[in-house]
Amino acid sequence: MIIDAYNTTQDVRGRSDYLTGVRPGEEPPAHTPFDPRRILDRMDAAGVDMAMVCSLAQRIENDFIIGMQDAHPDRFIGFGQVMPQADDALAEIDRLAEAGIRGLKLHPSMHGYHVADHGLLDPVFRACARHGMTVLINALDDAFCAPFAIEEIAQGHPDVPTIIAHMGAVWNVPEAIIVAERRDHVYLETSATLMADVKRAYARLGGEKILMGSEWPGSDFDLERLKIAKAIPDAGDRALVEGLNIARLLRIEVDA
């Protein structure tokens, strides 16, 4: 089974150039509900069976993600999102778990906190542990969530699988590999990374600690699968990276 570990969707349109993709001075498109066929068609074209979906950090849309997972439970794996400093953060994690959401995405730089803030993050990780949720941390060359800072918070929560998204690309990849090597419950996700960095991680970690992610629509599933195929030539290890690892973390049954 091919399972992509990191993708974003959003139902929000409006004045943001970033979200609408229009050029300055152009009128943004009128809001229309997000059509899941946009991502499903790309998944089908690349032979991807299931994909994790979460909202962009610019705006948290947990109900939208819950709706996508409920509408297509055999294709979408929902990850929710909270701002840890919000008064209702822990209650929202409880609500997400009750709705069947399997993981939590954190974006420290976008939401204005440091990932090694134990006062903020320890309660969040404890809530995820209670619900058996995995945590994914967006980590792109970011002082708010450098890999060693992620290790600082993750080491106290060995029962919470923790994914370093983007492997800390570009300059923090060596640190991310070190952290994944010495922490059994820390994993590396490949979107936005160079093929050379995936090769480097594979040489040090083998296939068990790497998760393929595309971060659609920023990239595409077929491109990420091609990168993984070139970086990880062994078919058995590639099967782990392309789906079996994340299936194990999220307790998704896979046919033998």
Automatic annotation (TrEMBL):
InterPro entries: ACMSD, Amidohydro-rel, Metal_Hydrolase. It holds the Pfam family Amidohydro_2. Keywords: Lyase. The keyword rRNA processing does not apply. Residues 33-252 form the Amidohydrolase-related domain. This is Amidohydrolase family protein. It comes from Nocardioides mangrovi.
